[in-house]
Amino acid sequence: MTDINAYEGAPEAEFGDYVALLKPRVMSLVVFTAFVGLSVAPIDVHPFIAFCAVLFIALGGGASGALNMWYDADIDAVMRRTQSRPIPSGRVTGGEALGLGLALSGISVMMLGLVANWFAAAFLAFTIFFYAVIYTMWLKRWTPQNIVIGGAAGAFPPMIGWACATGGVGIESLLMFALIFFWTPPHFWALALFMKEDYHKAGVPMLTVTHGRTVTRRHIFAYTLVLAPFAIWLGLTSVGGPLYMAVAAVLNILFILGGWRVMRRDEDAAMADNYTVERRFFRLSLYYTFLHFLALLVQHWVGIGW
């Protein structure tokens, strides 16, 4: 890992640059899934405590993003889609990103313990460690299974939200974890299909780089098949219901069909049309998780569970 500092004549950092270090787009999914996990839990939480809990989970997610950007500054400087990030562009130094990440980590964990419970706080601390150390510093640069194992970090937030309400873990929160965990690989592998050169230049051993696009396509389809049963199983638990099941059925049929089309694609044809099918599957994957969790939340609010 190379620490990239601001170069002479670089634009002065603005508030938005420090916000960008927290990966707000990624953090939005963290916040939403944690909120859903907390909301559908069987124990009611005071609205103010719930707000504070989600806020500190969000800060923990942002801390993970800042630590990731600090360590991955050398990779981000090479990849086209990340070159404009605050550190590679010279607007923020690596030291500032590290300091922000560590500070927010400590604040988020301590405050979550105080407003919710220490089990949830310990879970948040482990999640930050897993993303910043296990995934960013080890898995990402070492194995093509990086996004498979590392995807657990993004799957923990609904379990943390559930733990804030219950102080523990339930089959429902485990299935919410599984939904995100098995969704993550096909989501990122679809992106890698049309961004392979970026990962190749940066030396990141994504599956497309180490095993090629054909193998990646087969893996994408396989994961859509593995994912669907967990999505349906979640609908059969205490947090499930007819609304969620209807949404899950439609989404998983579309996801499996999309994965099948991706797998069956000829590489020459894909290149000729600029990976149109792959890009469509990637866009579908962006909605997949959000709509599952939205269905859980709406169903809970309107009270139409089993």
UniProtKB/TrEMBL annotation:
Compartment list: Cell membrane
Principal location listed in the UniProt entry: membrane
Keywords per UniProt: Cell membrane, Heme biosynthesis, Membrane, Transferase, Transmembrane, Transmembrane helix
InterPro entries the UniProt entry points to: Protohaem_IX_farnesylTrfase, UbiA_prenyltransferase, UbiA_prenylTrfase_CS, UbiA_sf
Pathway: Porphyrin-containing compound metabolism; heme O biosynthesis; heme O from protoheme: step 1/1
Catalytic activity of the protein: heme b + (2E,6E)-farnesyl diphosphate + H2O = Fe(II)-heme o + diphosphate
Entry-linked Pfam families: UbiA
Annotated CDD domains: PT_UbiA_Cox10
Entry's EC annotation: 2.5.1.141
Annotated transmembrane regions: 26-42, 48-71, 92-112, 118-139, 146-168, 174-194, 220-237, 243-263, 284-302
NCBIfam families: cyoE_ctaB, PRK04375.1-2
Family: Belongs to the UbiA prenyltransferase family. Protoheme IX farnesyltransferase subfamily.
Function according to Swiss-Prot or TrEMBL: Converts heme B (protoheme IX) to heme O by substitution of the vinyl group on carbon 2 of heme B porphyrin ring with a hydroxyethyl farnesyl side group.
PANTHER family: 4-HYDROXYBENZOATE SOLANESYLTRANSFERASE (PTHR43448:SF7), PROTOHEME IX FARNESYLTRANSFERASE, MITOCHONDRIAL (PTHR43448)
Record's subunit section: Interacts with CtaA.
Miscellaneous comment in the UniProt entry for this protein: Carbon 2 of the heme B porphyrin ring is defined according to the Fischer nomenclature.
Protein name (database record): Protoheme IX farnesyltransferase
